[in-house]
Amino acid sequence: MSHAPQPLGAPVVRREAREKVTGSARYAAEHTPPGCLYAWPVPATVPSGRVTAVRTADALALPGVHTVLTHDNAPRLHTPDDPTLAVLQDDRVPHRGWYVALVVADSLEAARAGADAVVTEYEVEPHDVVLTDDHPGLYTPETANGGFPAVRERGDFTRAWEDAENRIDTTYRIGPLHNHPMEPHATTARWADGRLTVHDSSQGSSTVRDTLAAVFGIDTGRVTAISEHVGGGFGSKGTPRPQVVLAAMAALHTGSPVKLALPRKQLPAVVGHRAPTVHRVRIGADDDGVISALCHEVVTHTSTVKEFVEQAAVPARIMYASPHSRTAHRVAALDVPSPSWMRAPGEAPGMYALESAMDELACALGIDPVELRVRNEPATEPDSGKPFSSRNLVACLREGAERFGWHHRDRRPASRQEGRWLLGTGVASATYPVLVGPSSASAHAAADGSFLVEVNATDIGTGARTVLAQIAASALSTGADRVRVALGDSDLPTAPLAGGSSGTASWGWAVHKAATALAARLAAHSGPLPAEGITERADTGEETGTESPYSRHAFGAHFAETAVDSLTGEIRVRRLLGVYAAGRILNARTARSQFIGGMVMGIGMALTEGSTLDPVYGDFTESDLAAYHVPACADVPAVEAHWIDEDDPHLNPMGSKGIGEIGIVGTAAAIGNAVRHATGARLTELPLTPDKVLPYLP
Fold it and tell me: pTM of the full predicted structure?
């Protein structure tokens, strides 16, 4: 094996690939300590009310059933910061699917049978689960997700809108969406001598450790949370979910290890979802397409358990130049499960609406949609006035148009047809913020010439192990194959979660700092290394603790070609192209995989993924992968991902931006714009299923 250094950015093969394809990579539910018991939760069957009785006798009489936890006998918890974790603590039922009992047995089958035998009685209260544009409970929150102000205004939008030569005023709708990772939420928990260890499917085991310590009232040093391999999360595993608390409670109550894997059918109610959003977008512009007035107003829902407001209007604050702007969020607290992060929260739904409206403006004015976006390129961030650390959206649009053959298209709508298929092309821009959090890491040089990097990062399938090894190897001027990486264990140096496309930037900064310090130590060292080796530790609290004077974002351009069946309304994506400006690409192989993965999620958002809340029963009707349709191989055409070279010195030592989510951000709009070009009809509600398309076909 060669130990020659490879340049950062080389397409190094993912180092855990063999373990995953051979099945030796062990996930949370694949740890089975001796004497392990199995748990199965019992969800509420009413949309709102109180539990008046939980009849457990029949369940306890079944062979193998050990106990049934309810709010009457479950261990008492300290009040969690996240109210969705206060499980089995009182008789309240805030929404259908809220857990009211947990059956623990010596087998999975016995636990499931026991759960079926539990009878729960309720005092039912009136409920409301339907979001409307004019819901009487709508209010303006102080902030949206991420701490963004709910309302921002610049200039005088109302006057500029009234004075505009051309105006676009359209409302777009996106229904509830669900993360549905391949690996469901699962935990194996055990207590020993007052110490709690959990193997948890989580995007951040440091947070899991801290949360469990707080709710059980013990020191963080007595909790270890391990998330070695995670089979996807897409935001739903970004914070602890009820299964980790339930498993730990059951293990404490029984004195035995307990394993709990949530049934997929229950996931929509308890692990978060993307809330439905209604977007009213108004754009005023002159005859040349230069925007003078821009307004993006969002209506969404949250639960009565806690407030979560999808920050869908925020991208409009930074995307295009406009002297007069208004962006606002309103929310209604309904009797629904608590929404949470999902696949580029805020940016994905927000940019769908904004980029669809931009396409409408281009069509109305007869301006090429690429050119319209170029004409409204801001010199500085419109919202804050900060200079951009780098902004190469125009370069992405230009290169994407060239690669796609954009300029050869016939602009006229409904002008291309192959047999029964109507053909169209569309474009959309994308943006995602550069996020970074404080992290710590250690770098160790062993006497045998190998290196070990330790950081409690979480590899959720993105290749973190590989990229962190490359970052360390680059700083140490050695080959990545000489660097081992330990992660996914809260006993390792504390690190933030894998979310918001912030992981590599956050963990990598700490790894780079530790490895750079180690390289300096080794350069000053003479003679053989001591038997115990040399270790350097670093944290980036100081570097990441101050606000940047720059507006830092990744940008991209999406191009799509769609075919619409003129008889059935079926939509097929024929081609999908993305070009991105995301700082320095640290691993070409894993980066391309992430970009393409995001675009596939965008196909799902545009065409197949949708969910509805039953107004009578108060639950999501699409609760499994038979009803909630994620894209299959047949739905995914030739997908290409490219990027431009971007040297941005204002980010981190690697010069990298997050890439995990920008691939999804503009995809749905590009597909929707292509459908409009193919049919001549503007559809404004996702997903674009045949029933929505058929009324507009000849």
Answer: 0.97
